[in-house]
Design brief:
Layout: H1 2-26, H2 28-32, H3 34-51, H4 53-61, H5 67-98
Helix pairs in contact: 1-5, 3-5
Length: 103
């Protein structure tokens, strides 16, 4: 569990650097959509490996693993990337949205 938290912290730190440029270039609206896009992509891969496990088993065996192992890897990646994108992009965009433009 400690290794998972460490990886989440490192990925979040890297995403913070990317988030700074994303907010400056695209604004808070498109930047806030990165979090759902990350969840959609990794979730689709996770459920794809779960549901199509028997059909893709020979192709996955060629790289020396199983569909279940790939599902576990993509599930862990989803957990890490969703937390990182939420902490570094979604929450700051939510705060930027609620900040008045003129005082």
């Amino acid at each position: 569990m400690g290794q998972f938290s460490s990886i989440t912290g490192v990925v979040t730190l890297c995403a913070m650097f990317f988030g700074r440029f994303a907010l400056n270039k695209w604004g808070w609206g498109p930047s806030a959509l990165i979090t759902p896009a990350v969840l959609l992509a990794t979730g689709a891969a996770f459920f794809g490996f779960i549901l199509a496990g028997d059909a893709i088993s020979p192709m996955v065996a060629a790289i020396g693993t199983t569909p279940l192992m790939l599902a576990v890897i993509f599930g862990a990646a989803q957990n890490v990337l969703s937390k990182a994108s939420k902490y570094s992009l979604f929450d700051p965009c939510k705060e930027a949205r609620d900040t008045p433009a003129s005082v």
